[in-house]
What does this fold into?
Amino acid sequence: MADEEKYISKAPIRRLMKNQGANLVAEEAVITLVEFLEKFADSLTKKAMKIAEEDKRKKLTADDINAALKA
It folds into this structure.
């Protein structure tokens, strides 16, 4: 994802990891988690968009996201 636009900032992810008990967090660990989360969000959004399109809607809803999570 080096050439792709980043959507999730590293600082909040590092804080999240530290809040879960990781006292020292390597930069590579933060980058790896950010990349995973961005890929997951991209994939989930595409699935949810298909659900909304099948229902002939343009607006993506929380129900679409929840349905995509279960699919």
The radius of gyration is 15 Å. The mean pLDDT is 94. Residues 1 and 38 are 10 Å apart (CA to CA). Residues 10-70 form a domain with the Histone, subunit A fold (CATH 1.10.20.10).
